[in-house]
Amino acid sequence: MFEKIKKPIDRHRFSIIILLVIICLGLSISSLMLYNSYSALLQDWIQLKNEQEKNRVDLAYLSKKSEADEDFIEGNFEQALQKYQAL
Fold first, then answer.
1. Using CA atoms, how far apart are residues 61 and 26, in angstroms rounded to an integer?
2. N or C: which end of the chain has fewer CB within 10 A?
3. What's the CA angle centered on 59, arms 54 and 65, to 5 degrees?
4. Which residues cross the membrane (predicted)?
């Protein structure tokens, strides 16, 4: 009396569901790959920014040292000494 009635699988609906599952998996995988690429690029950018700041500081130091060297070469020993001590 309460027998299950087997309904035939609608191939059209089944193929649409399978297609949607495949699309969702593809989008998930590609979004993970994009996120990993973004993370790597962000780390590279941070590293470059830190290196740029270090280079800026080094350049400022060498510029001041160069000024002191010029004073020393020109014979302005007192000024050169003051600049060397400031470094």
1. 53
2. N
3. 130
4. 12-35
